Amino acid sequence: MGRNSQLHRGNVIKSNALKTQNRLDSLATPLALLFLVMALLLCSFTIYMVFAMRWSGPFRDTWEFVAFNEALFQGVLSWQELFAAYGGAHRIVIPKLLFYGDFRFFHANNYLTCSLSLILQALSFCIYSHLLFKEKRITLPLKLALLTAVLFFLFSTTQLYNLLYAMDSQWFISTSCALLAFYFLFSASDIGVSTITICFTLALLAAFSNSTGLFIWPVLLTGCYLRGLSFTKLITLFLLCLCFVFAYTQQLHIEDSPDATIESSAYLFLSNLPATVFNMLRYLGLYLSSPLSRNMPVFGWLLSAFFITYLLRFWMDCIFKKHRPGKTSLIAASLASYVVLAGLATSWGRMYYPNSSIAERFQTIALQFQLAMLLLLVVESKLFSAPRRVFLKTCCVISFPLIMLLPYQIESAKEAATLSNRVYTSHTALVSGVTHIKAARGTLSHPLLINKVNMVQTHYQFLKQEMLGPFNDWPAQLMDQTLSMKTSTGCKGSIFSIERVSEADPYSGYKLKGRAINTQTEQPYKHLLIVDPDKNIIGLGRLDRKQGWLGLLEKQQPEKSTWTGFMPSSKPITKIEIYALNNDKQTSCLIARKQLPS
Fold first, then answer.
1. Which of 219, 296, 356, 566 is the most buried if burial means most Cβ atoms within 10 Å?
2. Comparing 432 with 350, which gets the higher pLDDT?
3. What distance in Å separates the CA atoms of residue 94 and residue 451, rounded to the nearest whole number?
């Protein structure tokens, strides 16, 4: 009797546990939908930040290509120069064509590159979504959870640097081409000539966007082997790839620059082989687990090691044990493998160029690796394909992007806002005619600064003559004109300081700081004019973005908002007036008068 009672009690406990589990599993879909909405909000915020923080004109390494565009504008440059690579083989052909198109048709306002990068991320999202909803091995809640992860990784604010930086459109092109190539390879019904042509054309586009695109090719060849391409065709394709790589490297030539040469990196590698291998492996582990590896480098490196080990085992099973995974698994594994190979190449390059492995400029490709590995683990693991404990599995999948990315969202957004403010300050100096390196430093790259190469000053006349970049903005078009606007009342402000950028330099001038508030709207003014006693506009000012402020400039707390302005010191004047521009672009308001320091 006692034994029967114990059995009955055990069955009741099991029954209650099963009911509890079923109730939890019924909450999996609503939970996944809730986080999907959260991911959509993050996506919207990132897109907003791109257009709110976007600047016009060159920035950092993009200055290296202004001379290329200037020569094309004047018709004196050979198109062969598309293959010239400043500082490395990853800045050729397609990025240069994009920059030229931006300069020629869009006044170098960076809308072309920013929009293209966002469109390519949206295309990647569509491909991932199609794969997930066609996948039969996982349940709907897991599909929604993975879709949440896709949005998190593709539109993380840690990608803002690359989305804002015109140069880094190359990363979005190469990774999107890789994803598309693998998608076509493993989705095609047969591995015919048309499929191979499409895949390797995409690989070609990736290689002409970024030298890491070359590492798509060995992965594609492996995929062709798994798809059953005949040995003869495979060898032929392999030899054609070798010919292209040879031609690619022979055609490529490095322009004169303050950076390293390829030979110096090779010498560095061979001179101390054990230390080099150690540094490359350390770099790769941190690179593939960024941004998590910023604060937890050991955990990040171990996570990368686990992912790479799992990836190697997956390929070994496919090649030697004749494991036949599904389309989603093969595409995810191929994309992850491409990123690992590209990461190894990057770790080689960084032996001389000491960029950090956790720099946000590498987020586009690093986050694709993490996303691909998450997809591969979930789809291939038998634990996730089992029908029970769906709620727990959904929580695990959602937790991954939250742990990897969520703590860095606001931090990255604030860094992007600070960067944007520095660029706008430098561009304000540029259009005002103050091109001294102290005023231009916010938009120049580190190698240029340490070598005292001031390309802002070099290309000032070309940008001004063609009204490119910040010169195309409306306030800049008022420079050197006479102030003829109607004046209005209802403003207040002051000038805090006037200081020389440099004492004895013809490209120097004055830097001004102050405050300007519209008393009618209780908002700070965004644009200001610096005027001489004859009402000639000789300089410009712009509202600063307050530290940590992510909203619209005009919505900042007015009493704590400041503006920064510049004016050249070449003109013999002793007094200036500061006028604020109203939003109607037809009236201005006198803010302050000031005596210039002697």
1. 566
2. 432
3. 28
